[in-house]
Amino acid sequence: MRLRINPKLEIQLVRIADDVIVAVVDDFLQNPAEAVDYAAAHFDEFEAQERAYPGLVLPAPESALADVNRFIQRELSRLFPFCRGDIRIHSQFSLTTLQPGEFSWIQRLPHIDPRLEPGRVNYAALLYLFERPELGGTGFYRWKDPEFWERMTSLQRDDPDAGLEELRERFALFGEPARYVTESNEAVELLDKAPARFNRLIFYSGEVPHSAFIERPELLQPDPRAGRLTLNGFVSAIPRG
């Protein structure tokens, strides 16, 4: 498998806040069905995630992603403030499967992508590989108390239940049934959402709180051909001065 980029791409920049821009590219791949076929053929190699991602993941073969990675390096570095050189990209197929009743507390909230090391910045490339838009796009948020949530997230890295009692005392939402976050609440302000569309790529700063925007979790299923399958690229880069 080699994923080939559509040579007639149009990149749309969407400003969802004064300091937050998302690039949206429709009809991104020439052969998106091959990506779905690969995920389906390797379904038994997907692995469940313990804490952050609410579902299953499968590393994507680097040999298949040369054109995709080149597009990020050459084209998107012109539009976002990171350098073309020394870019590190880790890519995986992701299949959202968890029902809210299975969540750890951190899965009730948006997340930011952790930095690999100081002095670098994170970006994310996400390609929707499912036909049904009602399976959910991506929501972007702003923390209402960033320092508090940074502390709580740090606690949770070692123990998925750490801090839960404090959260229940402080926030009513942690006493309510769990749900995928799709709106503003006590913890976050919803900025906007990127609707899902088959073969649509979105690219954004991984340091903006974000989450799968799933309003109908009962539609999720562990099937790469029918479920909420995405191809995710996690980009670590040097900021452009």
The CATH topology is Jelly Rolls
Order of helices and strands: EEHEEHEEEHHEEEE
Number of self-contained structural domains: 1
Basic shape: globular
Short description:
The protein is α+β, with helices and mostly antiparallel strands.
What does this protein look like?
The chain has one domain (11-237): Jelly Rolls (Sandwich), CATH 2.60.120. Helices cover 15% and strands 29% of the residues. With 241 residues, the chain is of the alpha+beta class. It has helices at residues 32-41, 66-74, 146-156, 164-170, and strands at 11-17, 20-25, 47-48, 55-59, 88-96, 121-128, 137-143, 188-194, 201-205, 210-213, 228-237. The radius of gyration is 18 Å and the shape is globular. The chain is built from four helices and eleven strands. The protein starts with 10 loop residues before the first strand and ends with a strand. The longest helix is centred in the middle third of the chain and has 11 residues, at 146-156. The model has no long low-confidence stretch (mean pLDDT 93). It has an eight-stranded antiparallel beta sheet, covered by helices on one side. It has a three-stranded antiparallel beta sheet with strand order 8-7-10, with no helix packed on it.
